């Protein structure tokens, strides 16, 4: 089967570009990467038809010379599906931005926790070692040690705060997503209290 | 009888339309539609399974286009069994979620979105089971995935969006890989119809065949969460609501296994990549179960056991003998049920004890004896204690391994034994920590709502403005017994009640009983799976049914 080289080359370039974009952190870039890669793969599907022929119509065209319509149908299906997924990803990127202020994809919580913990504990142990090794401890030294210690603890705490912020903006969907005004909260809470007695 | 084949797909799709049309205004009607349609799908699936068993595969050409061109749906024994088990499980989970939704006054799970998405998920899963060509399989996957995106990020809370983004990106990537594989298959063989591919693929050069096979297996391994491609699962599944996690864990991974079985038997017989599959199976089993040993969060723990037990089914597929396929099919049916049940029980435990964290749970055996029974039976079933179906499934696989006698097979048999012992250890750990030991000191009395007790360092000023009033951060006291109150615990909204809603308990009990039914009916069932395996290996009935007319 002969194949159009330019079609294939375009598909490869699109897939490469999209693939690189998909490896980045922000969801919007991943989204762009997905769209570009999707287009590249659709071209690949189309290139499976072989050489171009006449339009695949039933009448008026000699049957041997028409283009194979099946890959076109497959590509069309794939385009529709990509569209839907893109819409969903966009909504998710926006929601992520709403909740955390960025649309970056975060690491696995536990991975990050383990990594950070190991790092901080390592640094702390190093610090302690250094501190113990010194013989004449001046007041300045001690203050520096404490400041460093505090900094390490603050890092762990900041991480927890970040997680908590992501978590705690949960609860009532309609208030969070649709952004009802604060008065509603008050009224709603009163209503709830009344209901539960 | 053949006309029944598309119905498990069509009914839920039509019901989705109705469900969306009536929406929130007639919430009760919406619930009624979902339950009625899923019950109908269950009956249909049983009918299909019996018919496929009696008269061989059933196929229907949609729009009456002849097979290589048109869309063909096929239901053979394997499809029938998968449809039956999946619809039974989805029905149980639906009832469970109805119980939960009604008790929580629909705050956490807005039902208007839940029901249509759930029905579409069922339609997608059914479509993958009856799809007769690669493109239709792809479409089925996508229907299922888009619905699962919605269900996984239900409510749009922080952790769900975070976990959902990983899941969506991985799924997107595997879909692209799938589409590429389809393009390659079509370019090489000129068809995407399974039956025609089964005829044409053996004539292709070996390299092309292996490439297509490897790509398809990679795609399905991502869906099935086989070890090197499973890192996304323990991070994304546990954040969803309990019923959603249950149905995902039970069904979606098994869809990947079903596709592997179908492709390995129908398109690429001869087991060229068997050794690779067995190596991957061994890695899945051991890494998965070791991950589970290290976890203390119940849902994450079950996610790791899920990965580990996927290894058993891949082991069966890698052996590729009739007994092995039979064992794998039996194990799939058993595992769908038991894994779903365990996640449902995890939801009940969370509801009762206020948390899924094993270190904070305790004393549940005395406080909730029924819950203890509901956990104990599927847990022992899962670990493979003799009279139960987990044992029968494992025994079947191991006998197939011993009969094979190769080095890999023996290694896998040893690995499977160790894994099942470690599973027993993990289940015993859960039992000891959550149920058997005394209530840990400082534990609030049951029936109270546990406040968001994150950390002592929580007084971070950055946190202040982000707190939203009315989400349970303030003013939560002990709730009257039997009354549901929402609060956030470790960031998740958790409702604790002294007695979970009857529908939830009943649905879980139903799932437990279904698991036990596999034990009681083990004889007929193993005979059935054996016949399915024979049919898969023979290939002729399938091909003739599709192309013969």
Q: How does this structure look, described?
A:
The complex is a heterodimer of chains A (197) and B (549). In chain A, 75% of the residues lie in helices and 0% in strands. Chain A has 197 residues and is mainly α. Chain A folds into two domains: 5-100, no CATH class; 109-196, no CATH class. The longest helix of chain A is centred in the middle third of the chain and has 32 residues, at 69-100. Residues 164-197 of chain A have low confidence and may be disordered. Chain B is mostly helical. Chain B has one domain (2-440, 498-547). Chain B is 70% helix and 3% strand. Chain B is built from 20 helices and four strands. Chain B has helices at residues 7-22, 27-55, 77-103, 111-130, 134-152, 158-189, 194-200, 206-224, 233-236, 242-267, 274-294, 298-319, 322-353, 364-367, 369-383, 389-404, 407-436, 502-520, 522-538, 540-547; strands at 58-61, 72-75, 485-489, 492-496. In chain B, a hairpin with a 2-residue loop joins strand 3 and strand 4 (492-496). The longest helix of chain B has 32 residues, at 158-189. The interface between A and B is large, with 61 and 63 residues.
Please outline the helices and strands:
The complex is a heterodimer of chains A (197) and B (549).
Chain A: H1 5-22, H2 27-47, H3 69-100, H4 109-133, H5 139-168, H6 173-178, H7 182-196
Chain B: H1 7-22, H2 27-55, E1 58-61, E2 72-75, H3 77-103, H4 111-130, H5 134-152, H6 158-189, H7 194-200, H8 206-224, H9 233-236, H10 242-267, H11 274-294, H12 298-319, H13 322-353, H14 364-367, H15 369-383, H16 389-404, H17 407-436, E3 485-489, E4 492-496, H18 502-520, H19 522-538, H20 540-547
Antiparallel strand pairs in B: 1-2, 3-4
Helix pairs in contact in B: 1-2, 1-4, 2-3, 2-4, 3-4, 3-10, 3-13, 3-18, 4-5, 5-6, 5-10, 6-8, 7-20, 8-10, 10-12, 10-13, 11-12, 11-17, 12-13, 12-16, 12-17, 13-15, 13-16, 13-18, 13-19, 15-17, 15-18, 16-17
Region (Disordered) (chain B): 454-481
Transmembrane segments (chain B): 6-23, 32-52, 78-99, 111-131, 137-155, 167-190, 210-232, 244-263, 275-294, 301-322, 328-349, 370-388, 408-428, 506-527
Main location (chain B): membrane
